[in-house]
Amino acid sequence: MTTTSPSQEPAAPLEPTGAPAVALRGLTKSFRTKAGEVHAVRGIDLTITPGEVVAVLGPNGAGKTTTLDVVLGLTEPSSGTVEVFGRPPRRAVAEGRLAAILQTGGLLHDLTVRETVRLIASTYAAPTDVDDVLARTGLTELQGRLVSKCSGGEQQRLRFALALLPDPALLVLDEPTAGMDVTARREFWRTMHLEAARGRTVVFATHYLEEADAFADRIVVVAQGRVIADGTTAEIRSRASGRTVHATLPAAGRGAAVNRLLAHPGAADVRVQGDRVSVIATDSDAVARTILVDLGGHDLEVVTGSLDEAFVALTGTSDTTDPIEEDAR
Ligand SMILES: Nc1ncnc2c1ncn2[C@@H]1O[C@H](COP(=O)(O)OP(=O)(O)OP(=O)(O)O)[C@@H](O)[C@H]1O
Description:
antibiotic resistance, Rossmann fold, ATP-binding, ATP binding, transport, Alpha-Beta Plaits, binds adenosine-5'-triphosphate, ABC_transporter-like_CS
């Protein structure tokens, strides 16, 4: 599926509702599989106000797509509630308040770009002008091209054009730039910035902290079906770009010292290699003090980590071996 289903109803007057663009309360979603129940979303509360540009950031399997599918009315919550502009999602879709660009989806390959946009426009009672939509998504030059001849990035722009046809107040994008090269990615976000500047609410899922940082006003970090951080881009950036404190710990009592650091409120992640410990810290001063004063550590270094390292620390997606089992027995 490419975009949300077009409405067959007469156009409803799209007055602002005064309600949040998205309101999730106690959302959970589980799937039954042969291997047992999968808890994809484990209790998410989230309010997005109209006009916000929000990145839902998280690693693979965090529950981003499942959450967005609930917002789009494509799947029902197991428990909790969802409202889009104060309405059930499907009603918001039918009213043209909400449209989506999903990761993949069925474009008709035998049609041209323009034919595709015209076809979908004809299913709306009051669509946006086709030429306007083609121009805004940079497709005017490509309008005579068969969809089958379009690159992945161009097809994604076409999906974007289709999503703009009902003039939605909320755009939901699930990893919209997946598979695009750097130039296409930059062009896509340039266009999306213009749409956000027109007052649309934009909610997008991404794996990339850099992409969230570059485009969103607010970042909601999701891991293992829960929101683990939510704040302005600057807040998340400062929280995420914590410093790493490296030190040598005495052999005696090293396991207990590592456990103490793991429980430290200023530590986001702790790794051990030989007699060296590395602590990704949200409060590097406090961690350094504990290591030097309480744990007898020495050879201390404090370095600023990369954003990517920090994201790993924030989401707990470290794929390194558990340091406690490895080194700190
Ligand atoms: N229909 C389904 N049946 C069973 N399990 C599912 C189903 N849909 C999702 N899951 C599982 O739920 C969890 C969350 O999946 P989801 O696709 O929401 O994560 P995501 O954050 O979007 O990941 P990605 O970035 O890889 O797309 C995963 O463990 C996934 O395997």
